[in-house]
Amino acid sequence: MRIIKFRKNVFFLIALLGIITVNAQKKQTNQGKPNVIVILMDDMGYADTKPYGSVGYETPNFDKLANEGMRFTHFYAAQAVCTASRAALLTGCYPTRLGVGFALAPWDTTALNPKEETIATLLKNKGYVTGMLGKWHLGSKAPFLPIHYGFDTFYGIPYSHDYWPVDYKGNPVPPDTPNDWRGKCPQLPIYEGDTQVGTIPNLEEASKLTTTLTEKAEAFIEKNKNKPFFLYLAHPLPHVPLAVSSKFKGKSGGGLYGDVVSEIDWSVGKIMETLKKNGLDKNTLLIVTSDNGPWLSYGNHGGSTGGLREGKGTAWDGGTRVPCYISWPGKIASGTVSNQLMTNMDILPTIVAATNANLPKEKIDGLNFLPLLTGKTNKSPRDLFYVYYDLNSLKVIRYKTWELVLPHSSQAYSQAIPGKDGTPGKVPYVKVPLALYDLIHDPGTIQDVQSQYPEVVEEILKYAELAREDMGDAITKREGKNNRTPAKMQ
């Protein structure tokens, strides 16, 4: 009897040890696949957080994020407009290569082609749980919503929250209102997957967006803490119209805009706190950035470029250079700052390298920055960046520490009186001549030095020709050889 009992105990211990071993191996496997979170702000300017020079209000969680990882001082969005920038982020491609641009309105029929492989697609193929929260803006209805682009789940809005029948002061705009395009907008829908589950009819409901999305992000992390996951949180704010919850309204000391940024700062802090509480912080690659620079025509309801020229809707640095924080404790040295050139197209291949996923089958334009992030090199793999706008007009080329501005037409916020309290000012368009700027000595791009460095102009113009041959250029009426077709919605 004792021998039988002993054998039973041995078998029990062996079985228990096997379960523990399997669980440990499973846990180690999950730890071998880092979680990935990308938090994207809408219209947050280069200098809207304290580590980049904001004044008038505090951003303690952005401060903490900067102290725990790396921030980039020369990080660029591919274009200074919502749809194009988001396409670049998710696909690693120049938006003009994909045939998407501008900010798609509810009645537009263009959408990102579902054949394009996104970060979500690539990580889902690697066994990740993928979720998106917030503003999509790459297609306004099914089947062109996030769950058709690699995301398992989606909760949010299909486009910017100013596409609604509400005026600058929050009052309804009737459908028959003359000379006001907002009257023909539908009520702003909220989607869960492909299903509309509500609307945002007014500023009061819009003020709940940041908190609701943050709570859902926390729930996503909690639910999937034992699996590798990718979360894309695209906050609709601080894009106008500004809206903030009662817990932050009037509290920042920096006006309504400061209140909105303070709530976003709180959101970032809550996500960092949730990761730490669940023991996930050291196994999570966290990237926080903005889709483009501030909408300067809105004055005190817009953000700050920190002295960079112009803003959203232009090819100047104020429109394309944005804040970027990247944290991965134990992998990325804490409190580091990089002045190397990086773009939001580089996020996809960097995530792919960090997760050992596969790159898209089609050509991409992004480059892998993981060696720079992890300290294996201090040199950027990128020294060239083409700034297109108006879908495919080549307007600016960043090359190393030079910026060549090609002749084009542009908004000129610097020649306008900004708006106030939610109503925009009128911004003129101007003709922009050829110019060369030395970003080492002239970060505000004020002094044209092309006459002093004609050899630099000549060298960069050769790259312009390569871009025109590859992707085309509407200004010089060139067709690109390697562009792909967007989707068309019915």
UniProtKB/TrEMBL annotation:
Keyword DNA damage among UniProt keywords: no
UniProt keywords, alphabetically: Hydrolase, Signal
Signal peptide positions (record): 1-24
A Pfam family per the record: Sulfatase
Alphabetical list of InterPro entries matching this protein: Alkaline_phosphatase_core_sf, Sulfatase, Sulfatase_N
The keyword 4Fe-4S appears for this protein: no
CDD domains xref list: GALNS_like
Domain annotation Sulfatase N-terminal: ranges: 34-356
GO MF annotation: an example: arylsulfatase activity
Annotated family: Belongs to the sulfatase family.
Protein name: Arylsulfatase
Organism: Flavobacterium gilvum
